[in-house]
Recover the amino acids of this structure.
């Protein structure tokens, strides 16, 4: 006899949580499809060699490796070789760490079956051997939409609109922050700190949180020279509308060819988006945004929910080369991702889950005895055929117990079908919330229940 | 540079496959909920100790074990201990092998949050280190519905109706085979071969395939005595309707108390089901049905599709004790399962997937140049807001290439918005299948497109 425990960093989802998560997922799917993205699925595990070396040293460490089945010890000669070397001998598969590398493998393997530009979305769990902590899990879902095979900036424009549509549908007002890898490169060029690009952007990224002075201190600590810092100081004072900021930035970046490429891209995007009536998002130029610099090569996005304090609830960007690692060259792409867990928390905080996700119109038939139950069964079939959720309490238990099941089980109504009702071809129905009672004739069964349903969801 | 391969026994799903799989899953969900089942989800991996010892020796071997993260070698003293012993030292987690054991763990851990009888459904992948072969995969979905905390036979009645509803919804005519563990035990008792119950039922299970003589030979080989075989020979000749067969069987089983309990159960179920108008299934008493004898204790079900040659597409049964292994006693249950992969094959064979799953009403806007693209963008936003899938070809490519993308990408229509159309506030739209062309005025955009949509799905 074992006391059961759940694996560290993983979660069970109870019915109400599953329904709320699915509510979000359904909205995302709907909008992905509206924008022409098609769903694909890849296996939960990949050959180990497909995943290793793709996520940096830290990533390799966090990949969950699966032990070879059968006698994995057979071919091992040196057990003292150390964990890292042994792991690749006793394991040949690993759990998906993200959706991007498996997608790259998918594109290469199925290239002849796909039409490019290929627009796919994928909503599946990924696994990371991170140390679990509040809000960080070892199993979580990623929801990604990517276009591969096109370097047109119209894709970026479309993805920004997709963010706007999807979050509008979820009723979450958002800020969509945008930046460009080439603008960051241009700034580094002008300040002559190209080699310190990462240190520079990591510090810059903290501007909102710690302020200008602390950012400058951190840069100095990282060895960025005073005269370099002086060069990009004007950055801290860029202000105004998106266009105004972009113009000031353009002045500043004129000497940098790469920087000007970034400016051109953002101008094009911003200009075209003037035709888009943002539904509930705002596009914000954010020069401190610096995510995924190791693989993004163009635009970078990040989405923040307004009105709540929460990290980003989405992000993405353009990458030049998705599939080169697997031998297929010249496959540029751009993609965005939605953070399911954080979106869930935002929606809880803002009270955005519709009541239908927690309240249900469903009917419990009280069990009076074998004959009555048989009669109830007939009613239940009719209701179910009309799409109304109905069930019979399975036993001839005490009324109190049956009513309590109805109450705790979130039934909206109980139906009472005793001897008298059977004689009269009728049903006594009670609304468990309001206490109201109705007598429903068998002949009017469906029309009456549809009426009750309407009343219930309006209330 | 790596040539990518997919892990052995796993599958990628392309968009059309995902859509068809989701079509089945949506129908199952709808019916599960109609019958009062609520969705839960459990993690993909469990602590190793939760899973080992629950599926027999063969099962333990087929569980995918996950290597401990960090230095898994640190605490190992004897590398020569053999694979089995080492595995439990270097691994502490394993991938879900089925949905039942994790569900048992879930029920025990969340017992105070659940209302019993607790009716849950769960649709999630499971993993088995089986040798891959045609139609057998290392990752596949299980779709289970179980009720725990009630030993009422009304649950069996409900589950049979659920099978009927769900397969009717999928338009698959089926036979629902039913048997009872206690009837099999009764037969064994009468033939005085209680100790050989498994051999007896395994042989009996082959009656359809190999015939009476071969079944008897196999029984003899397994050491079942001639005089025992004589005793249950009358079984082979039971005939008639469900009721008639049950009556003959009752005569036969009279001397066996346990056998008669099985008869009573089936009589109750069959009797109550006379109130159920089967939508497209037939209930069949099948004495040779003997699945899951190591855990089922009451009714056993199996579903076969009519009109196709295919193994069972569903199965289930009653078990006395789901959670005893985790210390929670007296938790009876009954459940059924739907075989997603086989249902998919049946539906392909019978041509049951609706055309909407492969044909889409979606509009590709041809890219004529930057200005035209900007105008197209406005139309596209309007269409999308009305729920119509529309997109812009991302580049000013040659017409032939753009039309080919529309064609291969399963677009139903292309929209042409050139200089002339912009001047006239109109749009030229072409149906890619029929070749028909329309001129649509901006003022009538949505009404016209909704008309086209109707025409398209009717055609």
């Amino acid at each position: 006899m074992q006391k059961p425990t759940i694996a560290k960093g993983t979660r069970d989802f109870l019915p109400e949580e599953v329904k709320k998560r699915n509510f979000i997922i359904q909205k995302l799917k709907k909008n992905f499809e509206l924008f022409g993205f098609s769903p694909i699925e890849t296996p939960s595990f990949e050959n180990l060699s497909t995943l290793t070396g793709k996520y940096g040293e830290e990533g390799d460490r966090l990949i969950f490796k699966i032990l070879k089945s059968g006698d994995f010890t057979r071919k091992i000669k040196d057990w003292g070789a150390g964990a890292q070397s042994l792991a690749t001998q006793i394991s040949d598969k690993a759990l998906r760490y993200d959706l991007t590398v498996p997608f790259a493998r998918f594109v290469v393997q199925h290239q002849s079956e796909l039409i490019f530009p290929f627009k796919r979305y994928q909503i599946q769990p990924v696994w990371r051997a991170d140390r679990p902590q509040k809000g960080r899990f070892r199993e979580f879902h990623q929801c990604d939409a990517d276009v591969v095979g096109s370097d047109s900036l119209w894709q970026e424009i479309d993805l920004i609109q997709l963010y706007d549509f999807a979050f509008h549908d979820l009723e979450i007002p958002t800020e969509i922050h945008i930046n460009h890898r080439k603008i960051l490169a241009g700034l580094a060029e002008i300040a002559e700190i190209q080699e310190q690009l990462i240190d520079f952007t990591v510090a810059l990224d903290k501007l909102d949180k710690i302020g200008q002075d602390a950012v400058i201190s951190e840069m100095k600590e990282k060895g960025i020279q005073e005269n370099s810092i002086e060069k990009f100081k004007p950055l801290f004072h860029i202000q105004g509308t998106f266009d105004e900021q972009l113009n000031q930035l353009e002045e500043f970046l004129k000497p940098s060819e790469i920087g000007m490429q970034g400016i051109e891209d953002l101008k094009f995007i911003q200009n075209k988006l003037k035709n888009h009536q943002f539904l509930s998002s705002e596009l914000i130029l954010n020069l401190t945004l610096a995510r995924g610099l190791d693989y993004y090569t163009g635009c970078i996005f990040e989405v923040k929910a307004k009105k709540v304090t929460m990290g980003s609830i989405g992000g993405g960007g353009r990458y030049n080369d998705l599939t080169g690692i697997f031998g297929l060259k010249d496959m540029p792409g751009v993609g965005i991702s939605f953070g399911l867990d954080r979106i869930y928390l935002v929606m809880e905080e803002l009270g955005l889950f519709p009541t239908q996700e927690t309240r249900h119109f469903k009917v419990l038939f009280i069990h009076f005895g074998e004959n009555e139950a048989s009669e109830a069964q007939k009613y239940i079939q009719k209701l179910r055929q009309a799409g109304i959720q109905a069930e019979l309490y399975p036993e001839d238990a005490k009324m109190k117990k049956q009513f309590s099941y109805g109450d705790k089980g979130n039934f909206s109504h109980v139906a009472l079908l005793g001897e008298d009702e059977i004689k009269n071809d009728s049903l006594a129905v009670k609304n468990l919330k309001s206490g109201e009672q109705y007598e429903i004739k068998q002949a009017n069964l469906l029309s009456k229940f549809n009426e009750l349903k309407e009343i219930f969801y309006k209330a």
The mean pLDDT of chain B is 93. Residues 15-34 of chain B form the longest helix (20 residues). Residues 359-458 of chain B form a domain with the Rossmann fold fold (CATH 3.40.50.800). The radius of gyration of chain B is 29 Å.
